[in-house]
Model the fold of this input.
Amino acid sequence: MKSRIFAWLLALILLSACALALPGESGRVPLGGEPEKGKGPAAGKEMKEYRIITATDLHYISPVLTDQGEYFTNLVTYADGKAMPCIEEIAEAFTDRVISEAPDLVILSGDLTFNGAVKSHTDMAAKLSRIEKAGIPVLVIPGNHDIGRSSAAMFRGKNFTRVPSPDAVLFRRIYRDFGPDEAASRDPVSGSYTWRAGEDLLILMLDTNSGAENALPEASFAWLEQVLSEARERKERVIAVSHQNLYIHNKAYFRGVVIDNAPGAAALYEKYGVLLNLSGHMHMQHLEEDYGVPDMATSSLAVYPHHYGLITVSKEGLVYETRDLSVSAWARERGSEDPRLLDFENWSRTFFEKTMERQAAARAAGAEGFTKAEKKRMAEAMVRVTSAYFRGEPLDMDTVREAMDLWNRVPGGGYGAYVESIRRDLEKDHRHLEIRTGRD
Ligand SMILES: [Fe+2]
Done:
């Protein structure tokens, strides 16, 4: 029962890909061809303090591919709360925000696009070019929505038509300026690579979506160990990046969420002292630090409160903290008169919570022996708990205790059992992490 409740919650977010999949979805196209020769280390700047912006799961769709008509609107309204009606503005606001923050590096950890359309990728790459023209390097890896998607489509009115999705080779060509062509080392099997950020900081971009599905190809492990071993010899600190998670964040729901052969990668990360893994995919802000390497999953940039991570690396260690992308501030600066954009945070929060509310109301309606008012309180509490859980924020359980007591009266524990199982998560703030390396 408990796992069924988990399945409801996370399936809502994670399996939206399935819900959104169009008929005939066929999965990935394997990576082919030999890797191009890397250009070697990027600028080996001396590290004093290094600032990195990381974001994930933007799920961008080119405006050319949607008229925001009936089919598309239904698709995104009854999905997982991504603010797709404003995705162009979110992408533009993020691009401008990055340029004004002027970090030393930007990392995007996959699910760059909504449904993997080539046109969405090329438009996305144009935005990333704008960032690089401002002198800020960008690194990307694909997520499970980016390559070989037969669900890639253009939406018009009540209909859709399929459009091309890149294979791994084309993906790499589109994003060649954003990592692959500037790599310090490239895995000859998957699209994984390393990138030298500073004199003692190496970024390891692990691609678990183009050489194998939800996994690092077994043949890539030799390369992985080699780059980690060389990094240790050079006394480089390593930040690893993956789309799917390195460790289990939710014990009742992890298949397809965690990299299938993650234990092998995690063992190497632990052996060679990788500092941190950055991941995404769940659309949930969640820090898992019970294992050898902290795995910080940043929530989706497309979902309220539109987190991105700001990482500061210094000789003393590393600090990760989230920032909320303010689309309304961006809209005001641009002189927009669109009321939805000017009040974007309210609009986006409501859009996300409505998704939760529909599910919660349906569950409460199915519970027997409760008054209408009690069912309303039960549904409201579910929305509060789920929203806090996905934002990675602690929740004062006293504020939902009465409703949880009602849920606990539902045979089998109902939603109360689920809340009980994530109680520890709800006590913690998952938006912040500090690692001290003790170097000087
Ligand atoms: Fe994903």
Notes: Residues 1-8, 11-45 have pLDDT under 50 and may be disordered. The chain has one domain: 2-332+430-436. The pocket of fe (ii) ion is lined by residues 111, 143-145, 243, 281 (CB under 6 Å).
